[in-house]
C-alpha cells in the first residue's frame, strides 16, 4: 500500500468516525440527562434507543429547507457549511495513533503531520466563528444577529486564554508539532524521578493550564454554562433561530464534532494523546500493529470520557449571565494564563528543562 492510498483511507475513516461519534453524542446527551434526572431517555427507536440518531438524521434530511424572506440566500447556506467544514478539518493534524505496519512499511496515523499543528488548530478555531457570524447576520433576524454578536465576542475573549494556556505546553516541548508533544508524554521520568512508560503526561506538570483550556474549550464549543450564543430562554435559538432541515443539522452536528475534536485535542495536549501505560512494553512484546491499534483505542477512550464530562457539566451547572461570562474570560482566565506562563518560563529557566 502506498502512502497516498493510506492517507485517503485515513481521511475517509476519520470523517466517518467524527460524524458517527457526533451522531451518537446526541443519543448519549439525552441518556446522560435522563440518568441525572431519573428518567429513561430514548428507548423507542431500536434497542435502548440506539437507532434514535438515525431517525433524527433522516428527519432533518427529508424536511423542507426554509429560507426566510429578506435573508441573504448564499450567505444563509454558507454559514452552516463553514461551521461543518472547519469542525471536520481540525482533526487532520491530531495524531490518532502510534503507527501501523502494512506490507513492511510503517504509516503514521495522522492525516497531516505538519510542524505547526498547534498554530493550525488555533487558526481553524478562529475561522470557525465566521460560520456563526455569517449565519446570524444573513438570517435577517434580530435574535440571530444578537446570537452571532455574542458568539464572536465570546470567541475573542476565550481564545486569548486558550492560546496563552497552550503557550505553556509549547514552552515545555519546544515545538508546535503535535506529534512531538505526544511523543514527549510517552517516555521519560515523571517529575524527573519516576520511570513513566506512556504516562509522562502534561496534566501532571500543567494542571492550571489544563483547567484554563477546559473552560475555554467549553466556551469555544458553546456548551453549558457558556451557551449564550444560543440561549433559548432569551434568544429563541440564537444564530440558529431561522434554520431548519440539514442547514440546522450542519450547525448541530458541527457543534458535536467540535466537542469530539476538542476532547481529542485535550487528550493530545494534556493526557498523553495515544499513549497509554506500558505502550513501549506492548510494542516490544506484541509488535507495532497491536500497540498501534491499542493506541487508537486509547485516544478515542480519552476523548469519549471528555465528551461525557462535557455532558455532565451541561446538565449540572446553570447558564452564566453574559456579563459573568465576559468577566470570567477577561478578568480571571487571561490573568491566570499569564501567571501560569510566567511561572512555567521561570521553572524552565531555573531547571534548564
TrEMBL record:
Keywords, comma-separated and alphabetical: Cell membrane, Membrane, NAD, Oxidoreductase, Quinone, Translocase, Transmembrane, Transmembrane helix, Ubiquinone
Listed transmembrane segments: 6-27, 74-96, 116-139, 160-179, 199-219, 256-278, 290-313, 333-352
Taxonomic path: Bacteria, Pseudomonadati, Bacteroidota, Flavobacteriia, Flavobacteriales
Biological process annotations from GO: aerobic respiration
Subunit description: NDH-1 is composed of 14 different subunits. Subunits NuoA, H, J, K, L, M, N constitute the membrane sector of the complex.
Protein name as annotated: NADH-quinone oxidoreductase subunit H
PROSITE patterns: COMPLEX1_ND1_2
Gene Ontology cellular-component annotations: plasma membrane
Species per Swiss-Prot/TrEMBL record: Planobacterium oryzisoli
Domain of life where this protein originates: Bacteria
Reaction catalyzed: a quinone + NADH + 5 H(+)(in) = a quinol + NAD(+) + 4 H(+)(out)
GO MF: NADH dehydrogenase activity; oxidoreductase activity, acting on NAD(P)H, quinone or similar compound as acceptor; quinone binding
Functional note: NDH-1 shuttles electrons from NADH, via FMN and iron-sulfur (Fe-S) centers, to quinones in the respiratory chain. The immediate electron acceptor for the enzyme in this species is believed to be ubiquinone. Couples the redox reaction to proton translocation (for every two electrons transferred, four hydrogen ions are translocated across the cytoplasmic membrane), and thus conserves the redox energy in a proton gradient. This subunit may bind ubiquinone.
Family: Belongs to the complex I subunit 1 family.
Root EC class: translocase
Pfam families in the cross-refs: NADHdh
EC number, as in UniProt: 7.1.1.-
Location in the cell: Cell membrane; Membrane
Database matches in PANTHER family: NADH DEHYDROGENASE SUBUNIT 1 (PTHR11432), NADH-UBIQUINONE OXIDOREDUCTASE CHAIN 1 (PTHR11432:SF3)
Membrane topology: Multi-pass membrane protein
Amino acid at each position: 500500500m502506498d502512502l497516498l492510498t493510506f492517507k485517503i483511507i485515513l481521511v475517509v475513516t476519520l470523517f466517518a468516525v467524527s460524524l458517527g461519534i457526533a451522531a451518537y453524542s446526541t443519543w448519549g446527551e439525552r441518556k446522560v440527562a435522563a440518568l441525572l434526572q431519573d428518567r429513561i431517555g430514548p428507548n423507542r427507536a431500536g434497542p435502548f434507543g440506539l437507532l434514535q440518531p438515525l431517525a433524527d438524521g433522516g428527519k432533518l434530511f427529508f424536511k423542507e429547507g426554509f429560507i426566510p424572506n429578506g435573508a441573504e440566500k448564499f450567505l444563509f447556506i454558507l454559514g452552516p457549511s463553514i461551521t461543518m467544514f472547519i469542525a471536520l478539518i481540525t482533526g487532520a493534524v491530531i495524531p490518532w495513533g502510534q503507527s501501523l505496519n502494512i506490507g513492511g512499511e510503517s504509516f503514521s496515523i495522522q492525516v497531516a503531520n505538519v510542524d505547526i499543528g498547534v498554530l493550525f488548530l488555533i487558526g481553524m478555531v478562529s475561522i470557525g466563528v465566521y460560520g456563526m457570524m455569517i449565519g446570524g447576520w444573513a438570517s435577517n433576524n434580530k435574535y440571530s444577529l444578537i446570537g452571532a454578536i455574542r458568539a464572536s465576542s465570546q470567541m475573542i475573549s476565550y481564545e486569548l486564554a486558550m492560546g496563552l494556556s497552550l503557550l505553556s505546553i509549547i514552552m515545555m516541548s519546544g515545538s508546535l508539532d503535535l506529534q512531538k508533544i505526544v511523543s514527549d508524554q510517552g517516555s521519560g521520568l515523571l517529575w524527573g524521578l519516576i520511570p513513566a512508560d506512556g504516562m509522562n503526561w502534561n496534566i501532571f506538570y500543567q494542571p492550571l493550564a489544563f483547567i484554563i483550556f477546559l473552560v475555554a474549550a467549553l466556551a469555544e464549543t458553546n456548551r453549558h454554562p457558556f451557551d449564550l450564543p444560543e440561549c433559548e430562554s432569551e434568544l429563541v435559538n440564537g444564530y440558529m433561530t431561522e434554520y431548519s432541515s440539514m442547514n440546522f443539522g450542519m450547525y448541530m452536528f458541527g457543534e458535536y464534532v467540535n466537542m469530539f475534536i476538542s476532547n481529542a485535542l485535550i487528550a493530545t495536549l494534556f493526557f498523553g494523546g495515544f499513549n497509554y501505560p506500558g505502550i513501549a512494553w506492548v510494542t516490544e512484546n506484541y509488535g507495532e500493529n497491536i500497540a498501534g491499534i491499542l493506541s487508537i483505542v486509547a485516544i478515542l477512550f480519552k476523548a469519549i470520557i471528555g465528551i461525557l464530562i462535557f455532558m455532565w457539566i451541561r446538565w449540572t451547572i446553570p447558564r452564566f449571565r453574559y456579563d459573568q461570562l465576559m468577566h470570567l474570560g477577561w478578568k480571571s482566565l487571561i490573568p491566570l494564563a499569564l501567571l501560569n506562563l510566567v511561572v512555567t518560563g521561570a521553572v524552565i529557566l531555573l531547571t534548564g528543562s
